[in-house]
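Attaching the record inline, Q. Sequence:
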Amino acid sequence: MSRFSIELLPLAADADPHIGTRLGVIKIGDFEERFEASTEFWTPARYKSQWAEGLNRLGPNSPKSCLITSITDPATANFLFWWPVYLIGQNLHFQNHVLFFSEIKGAFDPDNPYPHVPERSTTSETGERISEWVIPFSDALGARNALIDVSSPVLIAENPVQS
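Structure, as predicted:
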């Protein structure tokens, strides 16, 4: 059984596909959380593509990334929901954040969100512990590979972490 997955759930048979949100779920180890993903700006396929890219880019030269779970048009929105991911040694550290566009430098580019991933911190500005979920990098390989389109020319290393 995979210790990591992220997906948008299928629409219920009686659901209106024009409502503008899809229910999703992220599983990290024994933790599971459902989320609502706006589909007004990104399609389900675009979320899947970003998750694949976000996981695939992690490696020794790129130790931080993100998985966006809900975004609306940054030109009119104030924030997005995402999971910054940090590669530390052989482990992935996940944190659930809200990114407020007013708190970043420059415009937010949804095709390149990675420059806005903050440095990892384990305490908030007020000294509170930041919740974090940790799994071995190898536990995310199956999900990463499943998210990547098999027709894609992207080559996937089994473990980009150098020992």
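DSSP finds two helices and eight strands in the chain. The beta strands are 4-8, 21-28, 31-38, 64-70, 79-88, 91-94, 97-100, 133-136.

More tomorrow.
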